[in-house]
Design a protein that fits this description.
The structure holds 4 protein chains of 4 kinds. Chain A is mainly alpha-helical. Chain A is built from 9 helices and no strands. By secondary structure, chain C is of the alpha/beta class. Chain C has a domain of 151 residues: Rossmann fold (3-Layer(aba) Sandwich), CATH 3.40.50. In chain C, 36% of the residues lie in helices and 28% in strands. In chain C, strands 6-7-8-3-9-10 form a 6-stranded mixed β-sheet, sandwiched between helices. A 4-stranded antiparallel β-sheet of chain C has the order 2-1-4-5, covered by helices on one side. The chains are: A mainly alpha, B mainly alpha, C alpha/beta, D mainly alpha.
């Protein structure tokens, strides 16, 4: 089972997921507007630039975490509607490829979501980010999304396999991604320079995100197959 | 509430759940017993 | 029992929990046969199909599909077998064409192969560009069969493929299965509709109490 | 039926569990005497340190329980037989672990109330404990999913291994996070207590007692889970037996 085949399958699965998502527009028509409204309402509620700048990173990542639940739920609902994921397994398609494809599609959607939210935060809360900060921000978004997606795809797959109720995903995922929430928020604070944090302070947290992402991408690639197999 | 109350409550709350769990487990065992025979109980 | 037999099952015992769904079943199927498996519900029809699809572990006996052991080289068996249960395994948000090209990418088939499979299964352009969610049961079933063709499955295992189809739909499916056999596939259909199987099958077998009984057709 | 459930000894009892049970009870009494009366009060926080003798042992044994669950899960996954008994042991250990973790959180916050003045503080150890509690409640929820016993076993084993993988990451990130907040915690009740010989002995003795209790509970629970699985299989047999009788044309 050559790696090029797994990569090919992953690309096909990711493209399929993104095409379905693009066609149904759930992200752009429902999720993003909701997040934008929340950002605006926060500005009304807190009504103090200093606090807003401090809160913005936490808000971006809390919104991302809850959005990841919606995105993962949809991503696997599409698979189980007509037992498509079983068809893939019954056809002997390597589960590593399916898993990596699902993760890739999730990462793309989460990064898009975070980018919009971060830009909104920059504008609404008048946060200014220099080039170094921007690089840190992008790296944090990608690695943070990778960590969330790697775990979410495993636990999302679980809710398809058993007669699992949808309530299982948040219960399993949210505690486990606490390190991402902590790491990504701290790194984003450095990028935003909120509360005098300097950009350089953000990089150790990015290291934590990288370790988290690597560990669960590796664990997920091994665990996804047996977890969703009969 | 005085210090002593906190301490007593801590100790009581440490052992009561264990006892409850053990009792509930034993009750479940007795309920299941009529439906199984010796072969299902390798430990006896 | 020549070496070219597509399915070679000998004294197979398959347990569902502790119930022997298959109790020493023996069966061989040669390339190009169209076998209809009959038997009451729960007699073991579906279990036999799932065994040949590499989905169930063998408690005893042996089972080889396309020369691969269903237990040890399960992945090889599944790659060469197309199993179609009650669900079609399609993405309802995508069009039939997109479902086909997705499977084409997954198995690494060229665009031309995907198009020829679609034609063979009678999927015209209008149908190919329709969202699967809006297709009829018969059209969905045909799309699922087209995917089997795209996957170049050599052994087609179909569990009650006619379920939920009207008379016209059933005839279409039968025609497609004969095409598939003509194109070199071997087809096994589990069906409990007696008159249906008479015209379709080159061979009919029956599963009774977990054992296989030949019941007519080419011996 | 009701009187049967009280007087008759449970079918899961054997000589081993009886002895373990006795040791656990005697040990607990001795621990109580030690912890509540014989050991001296702490120089700083006075008598509230007596909570330590239950809080620290239950925390320790809960961690032990989750590691044991992970070991059994790995044994089930990579063992040749994929033994269901290992799966049940993993489940029983996780159940007891969750109870001990709950107790740890309660006694931890009571102790915190006395020495910090608040029921909760984002102390790295307490935070990780709370995280573990929720994670393993999730694990027990996964054990409740449907499917055959083998499916349940494989699924739970993988989630258990993921949970164990999460512990160091969460603990490390919480430590990093709390280290940013250098507020000098005047008093750290969880173990940073200067202990004389008897106090240290009592603490270790406490860990031993709760470990015995853990073993005793898991033994009983594992056997009950075995009975549950056996009854389930018998149920399937009976139903299918009836089905088969009616199909085969007599």
């Amino acid at each position: 089972m050559s790696t090029s085949r797994v990569v090919g399958i992953a690309r096909a699965v990711a493209a399929k997921d993104l095409r379905i998502e693009w066609r149904s527009r759930v992200m752009t028509n429902q999720v993003l507007p909701f997040a934008a409204i929340v950002m605006v309402l926060f500005a009304f509620a807190l009504d103090n630039d200093g606090i807003l700048q401090r809160v913005a990173p936490g808000l971006v990542w809390m919104a991302t975490l809850f959005t990841s639940l919606v995105v993962v739920q949809r991503s696997f609902a599409v698979e189980s509607a007509d037992s498509a994921i079983d068809a893939l397994r019954l056809a002997g398609v390597p589960s590593q490829g399916v898993y990596l494809g699902k993760v890739a599609a999730l990462v793309v959607q989460l990064v898009v979501f975070e980018t919009v939210l971060a830009v909104l935060a920059l504008i609404l809360y008048r946060v200014n980010v220099d080039l170094h900060g921007a690089v840190l921000l992008v790296t944090t978004c990608v690695l943070g999304s990778l960590g969330i997606a790697a775990l979410a795809a495993v636990y999302g797959g679980l809710s398809v396999a058993g007669r699992g109720r949808e309530t299982l995903l948040p219960l399993l995922l949210l505690p486990a991604v606490a390190p991402v929430l902590i790491g990504a928020t701290r790194a984003t604070e450095s990028a935003f320079g909120s509360d005098g944090a300097r950009v350089a302070e953000g990089w150790p947290w990015v290291g934590l995100l990288a370790v988290f992402g690597a560990v669960f991408l590796f664990g997920g690639t091994l665990g996804f197959g047996p977890l969703t197999d009969e | 509430m005085k210090h002593a109350d906190f301490i007593v409550i801590s100790w009581v709350l440490s052992f009561v759940p264990i006892a409850l769990y053990a009792w509930r487990n034993a009750r479940r065992a007795r309920q299941l017993d009529p439906f199984v025979d010796k072969s299902d109980k390798p430990w006896t | 029992m020549s070496e070219t037999s597509v399915v070679d099952v000998r004294d197979a015992v398959v347990l569902l929990g502790s119930f022997p769904a298959l109790a020493e079943a023996t069966l061989t199927i040669e390339r190009g046969e169209l076998v209809v498996v009959q038997g009451a519900n729960g007699a073991g029809k579906t279990t036999l199909l799932r065994l040949c699809a590499g989905l169930l572990p063998l408690a005893r006996g042996s089972a080889r599909v396309m020369g691969h052991d269903v237990g040890r080289d399960r992945a090889a068996v599944r790659a060469s077998v197309g199993f179609l249960g009650h669900a079609n395994g399609l993405y309802l948000d995508l069009t039939a064409g997109e479902n086909l090209s997705f499977w084409g990418d997954v198995v690494g088939a060229h665009r031309a192969e995907v198009e020829s499979a679609a034609q063979r299964m009678g999927l015209n352009d209008r149908l190919l560009s329709t969202q699967v969610g809006r297709l009829s049961a018969g059209q969905k079933r045909r799309t699922a069969l087209a995917i089997m063709a795209v996957r170049r499955a050599t052994l087609w295992l179909l569990d009650e493929p006619h379920a939920g189809l009207d008379a016209a739909g059933r005839d279409e499916i039968d025609a497609l299965l004969r095409d598939a056999v003509a194109a070199g596939a071997t087809v096994v259909v589990a069906s409990h509709e007696l008159e249906r199987s008479a015209s379709l099958a080159t061979r009919r077998i029956e599963v009774v109490g977990g054992r296989i009984v030949e019941s007519g057709g080419r011996e | 039926m009701s009187n049967a459930t009280t007087s008759v000894p449970p079918p899961t009892r054997t000589a081993a569990t009886r002895n373990l049970g006795l040791i656990a009870i005697v040990g607990s009494i001795i621990l109580a005497l030690l912890g509540l009366f014989f050991t001296a009060e702490d120089v700083d926080q006075g008598s509230s340190v007596r909570i330590m003798y239950v809080h620290v042992p239950t925390a320790w044994v809960a961690y032990l329980a989750f590691v044991f669950t992970a070991v059994c899960s790995a044994g089930h996954l990579w063992g040749k037989k994929h033994s269901l008994n290992l799966d049940r042991l993993a489940g029983a250990s996780a159940e007891v672990g969750v109870i001990f973790m709950g107790v740890t959180l309660v006694t931890g916050s009571l102790w915190g109330r006395l020495s910090w003045g608040t029921y909760w503080q984002w102390d790295p150890r307490l935070t990780t404990t709370a995280f573990l509690f929720v994670t393993y409640v999730g694990y027990l929820a996964v054990r409740g999913l449907g499917g055959t016993q083998q499916q349940r076993a494989k699924r739970s084993a993988i989630v258990a291994l993921f949970a164990v993988l999460e512990i160091p990451l969460v603990h490390f990130s919480v430590l990093l996070w709390r280290s940013l907040h250098q507020e000098a915690t005047v008093l750290r009740p969880n173990g940073d207590v200067t202990m004389d010989g008897l106090m240290l002995f009592s603490l270790i003795f406490g860990v031993a007692v709760f470990t015995v209790i853990f073993a005793w509970l898991v033994l009983h629970r594992n056997r009950v889970l075995a009975l549950v699985d056996a009854v389930e299989l018998r149920g399937i047999d009976a139903a299918l037996e009836a089905r088969r009788a009616e199909e085969v044309p007599s």
